[in-house]
Amino acid sequence: MAIQTHRCPEPSCSFFNQVLPHNANICPMCGTSLAQAVQPPPAMVGSVARYAQTSAPSPQFSSTINNQKRPQLKLLHPSEQSFLLLRESGVIGRQNLSNGMRPEIDLTGLPHAAIISRTHAHLYWDLARQAYMIVDDSLNGSYLNDKLLPRGAPHPLSHGDKLQLGQDQLICLQVELSHTST
Q1: What sections of the chain are H helices per DSSP?
Q2: Do the bridges between strand 68-69 and strand 162-165 make them parallel or antiparallel, or are there none, so unpaired?
Q3: What was the pLDDT predicted at 51?
Q4: What is the pTM of this model?
Q5: Which of 11, 59, 91, 122 has its CA 20 to 30 A from that of 101?
C-alpha cells in the first residue's frame, strides 16, 4: 500500500502539487482544503483540481470546524479601520488594478498601501494548533511583534499581536481574536 501524500490542488498556489505535511488539512499558502484533493495521475492534476474546487461546498465559510468554534480574526489599523477575515483562510494584500481581483483582506485604501504586495501574506486557521497562522509571501516583508517573519514559514497569531507589513512601520495592524456567539 502506498503512503498517501497531501498536495495542494490549487494551480495558482505557489505550493501547487508540492508535498505538504501529512497532518495538514488545508494548504498553508492558499488555504485550499486538502480533504477535497484527489491524488490523480500527474497528467490530470490541473483538471481534477478545478473540479475538486467546484464539486463540493467549501468548509471555509463556517466559523465551526469539527464542532469546534474558531475565533473571529480582525485586524485593526491606527486609523480605526478594521479588517475582518470572514473565512477560515485568506490573503492580506491590495487590489490588483490590472484584473480587479481583491484579496480577502484588502488594504488598498490605506496610506502607504503601495508598499503592500498584492498577495502580501496568507492567513489560515490551523485546526491542530487551534490558532490562526500567517505566512509571509511579500517582497517588503512582514513583522510580527517587531520580528521579521521568514518568507514562506507559518507563524501563529495571538490576540494583541502587532503585525507590520513592509518596513518603516508604515502599515501596522493589531490582531484581535474574539469568540462570537451564534
Answers
A1: 45-55
A2: unpaired
A3: 28
A4: 0.64
A5: 59
